[in-house]
Amino acid sequence: MEKQADWPCTVRTLFRERNLGCKEAVSQAITWFFEHEAEGIILEDDCLPGSSFFGFCDALLQKYRHEDRVRIITGSNMQNGRQWGDASYYFSRYGNIWGWATWRRVWDRYDAGLSQYTEADAARHLRRIFDDPFLVAAWEKIFANQKAGNIDTWDYQLQFITFFENGLCATPNVNLVSNLGFRADGTHTFDPANHGSGVPVGELTIRTHPAGFTPETEADYYFMAREYDLAQQWRRHRKWKNRMKRWMKSLFQ
User: Fold this and answer.
1) 3-state class (DSSP) for residue 192
2) Could you tell me where the DSSP H helices lie in the chain?
3) Most exposed of 10, 49, 60, 112 (fewest Cβ within 10 Å)?
4) Residues in Cβ contact with 240 at an 8 Å cutoff, skipping those fewer than 6 apart
5) What is the CA radius of gyration of the chain?
6) What is the residue-wise DSSP string for 41-64?
7) pLDDT tens digits for 103-158?
8) ∠ at Cα 93 (46, 166), nearest 5°?
9) CB of 92 within 8 A of CB of 220?
């Protein structure tokens, strides 16, 4: 592996003798990584970055090195061509980890068990962040399942901590990473027709930076509405509500 690197560097590797599962294997590997480095880029095996992804991460790792609100730099843009703001990237509350970068200062706050938060804490924070009741309900359910040990993953914990601490993710206005892992025999991504599958990669030169640190809430809602199928939930809710209205009306006829 070291011989495959065609630039001056030191290659460190971490191999496991058994499968630790998604939660422990990935989170422990990132912890190991930040024991050696103060900042860096993280790529999982199914994520194919474009050439400008690395320059994008490198520039923002340097720019926001000491800015506590900025927690994640992602290469993924799931906005289907929508551009947010006049800058080359925007700030989001949601941190997509299909090709991302961060700092040791951020990972030091990571807690795989979310031990400092209760379900009541989560509900209070989520209702402060999101106006949509279906979105709040979706994240409350994820939090409860995560705390109960029903989800073997590591990334929801990072997202909750980012939510609860008012963290931000720098997101390019062009998609820079394509996830090629959507297939029937995938571990977590099974549907090749999923909206996140194989999104084309573009190129990005950072020309302008956002003027402030305000998250683009419409961009977040657009992504999460698709991710959690809020439109279908709303249709079910409206159908149930109309049935209740008809039932109540019939009682008084």
Assistant:
1) coil
2) 21-36, 51-63, 104-107, 119-129, 133-147, 155-164, 217-227, 230-251
3) 10
4) none
5) 20
6) EE--TTEEE-HHHHHHHHHHHHHT
7) 999 999 999 999 999 999 999 999 999 888 888 888 999 999 999 999 999 999 99
8) 130
9) yes
Gap between the Cα atoms of 158 and 126, Å rounded:
15
Strands 168-172 and 70-74: parallel
- At 16-48, the pLDDT tens digits run 999 998 899 999 999 999 999 999 999 988 899
225, two tokens: 């509405």
Q: How far apart are CA 88 and CA 207, in angstroms?
A: 6
d(C-alpha 217, C-alpha 35), whole Å: 34
CA distance 147 to 160: 12
Give the residue carrying structure tokens 């990972």.
107
Pull the structure tokens for residue 158: 């990072």
Global pTM? 0.86
Name 163's Cβ contacts closer than 8 Å, sequence gap at least 6: 93, 125, 126, 129, 139
Tokens at 85, concatenated: 């703001």
* Residue 103, SS3 per DSSP: strand
Query: First vs last Cα of the chain: how many Å apart?
Result: 78
The three-state (H, E, C) secondary structure of 66-97, written as one string = CCCCEEEEECCCCCCCCCCCCCCEEEECCCCC
b/e map of 65-74 (b: 16 or more CB within 10 Å)?
A: eeeeebbbbb
Distances (CA, A) of 59 to 6, 31, 52, 84, 226: 22, 23, 11, 20, 30
